[in-house]
Amino acid sequence: AQKITQTQPGMFVQEKEAVTLDCTYDTSDQSYGLFWYKQPSSGEMIFLIYQGSYDEQNATEGRYSLNFQKARKSANLVISASQLGDSAMYFCAMRGGSYIPTFGRGTSLIVHP
Amino acid sequence: KAGVTQTPRYLIKTRGQQVTLSCSPISGHRSVSWYQQTPGQGLQFLFEYFSETQRNKGNFPGRFSGRQFSNSRSEMNVSTLELGDSALYLCASSSYDRGRDTGELFFGEGSRLTVL
């Protein structure tokens, strides 16, 4: 069985600062993918970044980077230079051999001006 | 490129009724999956369809069903509605094909169902 744990229900960050959102996962699969999604108040989930289990380098997409530590089974999302529009719920997810995605409970990020 | 479209966006039903939700995926995407999002249970996988075939199913009762048409559009149906079915129902499409370990999901804005 797969499990995603996001231990931070809420996070606050000052505009233009960096923030790290934590995600740990558990799986017995050797091959899997890790994803981060953003959900603004409108409800739509927006894909941010992907990391494959065999990728040796951390994934980056613009201001988003994924700090992948395989031995620790962690896949933290780092947002650099936070913007007011980054305020949203953030979900960590994984998909393994069952092809069924598992989502964490999410972290609410609020960016202060 | 048009995104994933879900209809209706909001609906109110009473216990015992049934509801049908519709999802139009991104053009060219053959995989459509459905999710239920509630404050208590979070985001839970309902089922996935690929080329009109259900290829994965989550742990939901048989009252929850779905189908996919030849144009990849999908519908999900919930019969005999219960109060606990009140949720945001999200649809996602993907170009994901098995054998690759990528395949991000593109979500619609969801259908918010309230059961009274």
Would you spell out the secondary-structure blueprint of this structure?
The complex is a heterodimer of chains A (113) and B (116).
Chain A: E1 3-5, E2 10-14, E3 19-21, E4 24-26, E5 33-39, E6 46-52, E7 60-61, E8 64-69, E9 74-79, E10 88-95, E11 102-103, E12 107-112
Parallel strand pairs in A: 2-12
Antiparallel strand pairs in A: 1-4, 3-9, 5-6, 5-10, 7-8, 8-9, 10-11, 10-12
Chain B: E1 5-7, E2 10-13, E3 19-24, E4 31-38, E5 42-50, E6 53-57, E7 64-68, E8 74-78, E9 87-94, E10 106-107, E11 111-115
Parallel strand pairs in B: 2-11
Antiparallel strand pairs in B: 1-3, 3-8, 4-5, 4-9, 5-6, 7-8, 9-10, 9-11
User: What separation lies between the terminal Cα atoms of chain A?
Assistant: 41 Å
Uncertain spans of chain A: none
What is the general shape of chain B?
Answer: globular
Mean pLDDT of chain B: 91
Number of strands of chain A: 12
- Note the overall shape of chain A: globular
* Number of discrete helical segments of chain B: 0
How many beta-strand segments of chain B? Answer: 11
| Radius of gyration of chain A from CA coordinates | 13 Å
Oligomer class: heterodimer
What ranges of chain B have pLDDT less than 50 throughout 5 or more consecutive residues? Answer: none
Structural class based on helices, strands and sheet pairing of chain A: mainly beta
How helical, in percent, are the residues of chain A?
under 10%
CA-to-CA gap between the ends of chain B?
37 Å
